[in-house]
Amino acid sequence: MNLTSSRSVRLRRRAMGLLSLLFKLAMAVFFLFPFYWMITTAFKTYGESIRFPPTLWPESFTPEAFSDVWQRIDIPRYLKNSLLVSLGVVTLQAVFNVTAAYGFARYEFRGKRWMWALVMLAFMIPTQITFVPVYILFSKAKLLGTLWPQILPFAANAYGIFLIRQSFLQVPDELVEAARMDHAGELKILTHIMLPMCRSSIITAELFSFISTWNSYFWPLVMTNSDKVRPLTLAMQRLQDAHQGLEWPVLMAANSLLVLPVLLLFLLLSRQLLSSFGYRGIK
Amino acid sequence: MAEIVLEHVSKSFGSTRVIEDLSLTLRSGAFTVLLGPSGCGKTTLLRMIAGIGPATSGRVYMDGVDITALPPGERNVAMVFQSYAIYPTMTVRGNIEFCLKNNKVPRAERQRRVAQVARTVGLEDYLDRKPSQLSGGQRQRIALARALVKEPAVFLMDEPLSNLDAKLRTAMRSELIQLHQALGATFVYVTHDQTESMAMADHIVLMNEGKILQQGDPESIYRDPDNIFTAQFIGTPPANILPLPGSNFRLGFRPEKVRFLASEEALAYTRPGTVVTREMLGVEVLYKVRLPEGDVMVRSACFQYRAGDTVCLGVAGEDLYFFDENGLRIRSGCGELIRRLEEGTL
Amino acid sequence: MRPGRKLPRPSGRKSSGTGLVPYLLVGPAMLLLLIFVFYPLVNLVYLSFFDYNLIREKTFVGLKNYEVLFFVKTDFLDALRNTAVYTLSVLFFSLLLAVLFALWLEPDSRINRFLQKSMFTPYLISMVSCAYIWSWMYDADSGILNAMLALFGLPLSRWLNDSDLALFCVAAVAVWKSLGYYLIIVLASIRSIPAEILEAAALDNTPPVRKFFRITLPMISPQLFFLLITITISSFKVFDVVRVMTDGGPGNATDVLVTYIYRYAFQMNARVGYASAAGTVLLVILMILTYFYFQVLSKRVHYQ
């Protein structure tokens, strides 16, 4: 092997590595830049926001847009609705999904086969199919002015039942038998063996539900008829409708309020979320 | 101490019959090994006694009391699972005292018993660790401690050593024997490893396809097999089985009973052959020798033969087993068979 | 017992004959699913045969709604075509980019993990927020994208206001938002290929391109199939991004199935029966896709 050629190979390799690194950073910017743009726009004045070419960093850095949002729409009420709906869904799912999953995983009973078939079918039916009849249902029940139409339809969720049942099934038979040998009753097996062992997948399923409810737009759009019950995702529309010509700083300020909780959650839990999403794809 | 009696038990899973009409008595205080190849039904029997896989029909008695319908937690038995079945979410202490808590044993008593058992199995320093932080051998000890702390009349063990490496397995083997001697409880031990069964058992129950083929103490099982299956399942290497020309019978002998003969010598069974392979074992050599009727294994202290050598093998009449066309041992009329062998008319 | 067949283990976990307990456990969830999934499903198909506007009594019209959908009006076929174009473009770019990025980010390093995390971030953010941000970036007058084009001296684009381009602009946002998730799945499946297989290929002196097509790609094909179906299903029910960014416009250049159903059910004099017929068409499409999904799923069981 020639010494100079091996050195040039090494140089070329290093140059490629550097290039690849730069390109990776550029890609990271491409995926994160929109969020940067959202936040910086929110701190610009209207005049600065429509300047062409735009400024990369706000000149005046003013919270004006945020106070504008605050004055024009009732942020606390939207926020309260979003939180109530998301927490309501998560709480009810914690009860109904877990009990149903446990029933399907641990018991044999008449009708189990077709009930499970129904769960799997429900898994495949999106809300975009059912919304018209469900709307009629809630309008007949005179519940459209409440938060229930946003909560009740998701109190049991086929996907959650499926995931949690899967993790109950993964608890080895021998553990349950060992617990029986140790004179543990059914309730004790549930609370001391099954639930602790499936803790992480239950939490993951709940987290997914929280995020998707918090982010939902289509369903509340269809199921609400007044701002009293609308969540934050629909508040933006108010800002858009209110004026002729879009005031981007105001919209981006409201958007930041919507994005930040989820972004913070992700920063805190990114490792768990990434691995559980990867796992979800493989299984 | 307790005696276990299984009476006409059967077990099927769906349409598969695993055990059909089996009866067995397990002596009180004995170390009984249920031995057999995988799928023979030995674990199924153990689970019947434990109460976690009830029999489809038949009854199970413990010291004369019918426990067929008794839930597992209320039988005075403890079980060590093959996978150990350690509760991963509890500490070592939590694992050991789980049963005591379920049985509402008072706190002070609980602590005393856990401490004592932990000392017995050598886990005192690990009581507050999570099982995932411990090695395979230590987890095995947790499983053992969990059984011990119940102070049961019967210990059930389902291949408890199969997940350990060879060295640890031998060490645990003698520890279990000592434990049995110290406790004097009834031990029922399931394994597919005949060496393990020979080493540990007072009483071996050899099973195949859901039936008991032979039972007895290790020595009688080894020396006096009732059938070809037993002769070939027990012993390393297994007994040699050869056809008897001119009959439906087969003949068998243990590898260590074969002698290399000088040209003028003759025994009841004498055959010329060629050495095919030679394996050095240390004190002995294991030869594979090709005879006209087939290959046989020979264990011998004669080191001088090499592959390719022509030899003459002989087995004495009292070391020969005869089996009929169904593989069952022929116990009467063997003298006649030996005489005909010597005459060369067989 | 035949060797190699696993002995059916007595399942100690399953308790049977425990009476009401399992029904109490499963019942509430089943009831909720019946009310909010199955009843609506049946009612949707039922309503599609009626003329109904939520106020007047409904009148049976047979297949007339379907006839109008397919043969009288052209806007439904437009929406169907738009949905198909949208789906195909999202599918093509998502899968291609997910595989390319996965190969590129396969070695586990700090920068790779960082990029992976960055790419995943938009997936967790609501589609509404993403749509608003991108609407702002696409803005024809003062958006950053046009500013970039101007910087390089390129002609400016109308983006979302350009009826030939709008649908692809919307699709690009969908790809941008979910690519990180698809990447994770492809990456996980590439990493689960046994190292021995790749080492054997290296010992056989396999060139990288052949290694990809003969070893990597076949090994990850089950996951790619899973993604193919998932992306197709989620693209057919797209709504949020379209509604926020273009609301079907300009004209009806970006009108898709769900915006179409929504418009007829809630905005155009509440033509519920007609909207239900369109919903039933979407249902049939999803059912066909679901069928393929389960076909693939059952095949995957044999594959592994």
From TrEMBL, chain A:
Location in or out of the cell: Cell membrane
Membrane disposition: Multi-pass membrane protein
Sorted UniProt keywords: Cell membrane, Membrane, Transmembrane, Transmembrane helix, Transport
Residue ranges that the Swiss-Prot or TrEMBL entry lists as coiled coil: none
Keyword Cell membrane: yes
Transmembrane segments: 21-39, 83-104, 116-138, 150-168, 248-270
Domain ABC transmembrane type-1: 79-269
Keyword match Membrane: yes
InterPro entries per UniProt: MetI-like (IPR000515), MetI-like_sf (IPR035906)
PANTHER family cross-referenced by the UniProt entry: ABC TRANSPORTER PERMEASE PROTEIN MG189-RELATED-RELATED, SN-GLYCEROL-3-PHOSPHATE TRANSPORT SYSTEM PERMEASE PROTEIN UGPE
Family recorded in the similarity comment: Belongs to the binding-protein-dependent transport system permease family.
Name assigned to this protein: Carbohydrate ABC transporter permease
Organism the protein comes from: Pseudoflavonifractor gallinarum
UniProtKB/TrEMBL annotation, chain B:
Annotated keywords: ATP-binding, Nucleotide-binding, Transport
Entry-linked SUPFAM superfamilies: MOP-like, P-loop containing nucleoside triphosphate hydrolases
The keyword Nucleotide-binding appears for this protein: yes
UniProt superkingdom: Bacteria
Record-annotated ABC transporter domain positions: 4-234
Gene3D superfamilies on file: 2.40.50.100, Nucleic acid-binding proteins (2.40.50.140), P-loop containing nucleotide triphosphate hydrolases (3.40.50.300)
GO MF terms held by the record: ATP binding
Record has Transferase as a keyword: no
Protein name as catalogued: ABC transporter ATP-binding protein
Organismal lineage: Bacteria, Bacillati, Bacillota, Clostridia, Eubacteriales
TrEMBL record, chain C:
Domain named ABC transmembrane type-1: residues: 80-293
Compartment annotation: Cell membrane
Keyword Electron transport part of the UniProt annotation: no
Cross-referenced SUPFAM superfamilies: MetI-like
Entry's transmembrane regions: 20-42, 84-105, 117-137, 143-160, 167-192, 212-236, 272-294
PROSITE patterns referenced in this protein's UniProt entry, alphabetically: ABC_TM1
InterPro entries: ABC_transporter_permease (IPR051393), MetI-like (IPR000515), MetI-like_sf (IPR035906)
Main location, first listed in the record: membrane
Entry keywords, A to Z: Cell membrane, Membrane, Transmembrane, Transmembrane helix, Transport
Membrane topology field: Multi-pass membrane protein
CDD domains, A to Z: TM_PBP2
Family per similarity comment: Belongs to the binding-protein-dependent transport system permease family.
This protein's name: Sugar ABC transporter permease
Native source species: Pseudoflavonifractor gallinarum
